[in-house]
């Protein structure tokens, strides 16, 4: 069926006809190597021949460029723009800071494909504020004092912001990959459930951070501080480029537990999850004696969380989604 309202001139039919946009597989040789790409083509609804429409060639160029970079593991233009935003640095100063020629990054932003070597440098800077600080210090003499100070201050800020453990970052990245919308309150509770269920099923905590018994339930202060600095949807913040790909470093067991939590607890909002934690032993026991005020320094011991969820597992079988759903239902009945 033709796309309504989409019409252009077909040289085969010798008239204006409706057309369809379809995907077409092509093979293109780049640097003496064949690559398969999927590109968009316009097809006449009457004769089935391809037709040329405005803007399609540019779209095909972008499609091929994105797929080629993905295949070769090269940074995208979007990646470079994120790097500039994260470290508050212009394209020419960024080029110098990374040890490239002054016009290298500007050319990449215009569409030139970077070499694997230079791409890896950019990817390393995007993945690690510590690495970026190292490059800034190495090339300080090539930058103006103002550009250096501004970028270094941004790197210091990002480095302190992402001061949680690598495993915590990987878990957060995977949670965001599994769930489209996650509020800070919701994330805190999901991390607590992941810690509890993983430790019960595998006999050890998934991450080293200690959970605290705050008034609104279990909270990881380091994660709270991280999200407090994001003024809008965290996923839309350029700094979240620092998390991309980190979820790949999780084990199958770790991903399995996160999948369980995302598919069960993850369908509820933060306030509902808060009610569940308020009816659980670890938070209630830690809360005793503090009335309505719970010191932020009061730790929910990992061992206590593990023992509680081992007991829950014996009753419900929380290694399955059905078991977890039954547990959630019963806990909400108490709320």
Query: How many structural domains?
Result: 3
Strand order of the largest sheet: 1-2-3-4
- What portion of the residues fall into strands of 2 or more residues? 5-15%
Major sheet size, sense and barrel closure: 4 strands, antiparallel
Mean pLDDT: 88
Note the gap between the termini: 53 Å
SSE sequence, one letter per element: EEEEHHHHHHHHHEEHHHHEHH
Radius of gyration: 26 Å
Oligomer: single chain
* Form type: flat
Please work out how many helical segments DSSP would assign.
Answer: 15
What is the total tally of β strands? 7
**Helix/strand class:** alpha+beta
- Tell me roughly what share of residues is in helical segments: 40-55%
Point out poorly predicted stretches.
none
What does this structure look like?
The protein has 335 residues and is of the alpha+beta class. It has three domains: 66 residues, Ubiquitin-like (UB roll); 85 residues, no CATH class; 169 residues, no CATH class. It has 15 helices and seven strands. The strands form two sheets. The chain has a four-stranded antiparallel β-sheet, with helices on one face. Strands 6-5-7 form a three-stranded antiparallel β-sheet. The model has no long low-confidence stretch (mean pLDDT 88).
Q: Could you provide a short overview of the structure?
A:
This protein has helices at 56-72, 77-86, 91-97, 104-109, 116-127, 129-138, 145-161, 166-178, 184-202, 221-228, 252-264, 270-278, 281-287, 302-316, 321-334; strands at 7-10, 15-30, 33-44, 50-51, 211-214, 217-219, 299-300. With 335 residues, it is an alpha+beta fold.
Descriptive keywords:
335 residues, alpha+beta, Ubiquitin-like (UB roll), 3 domains, four-stranded antiparallel sheet, 15 helices, flat
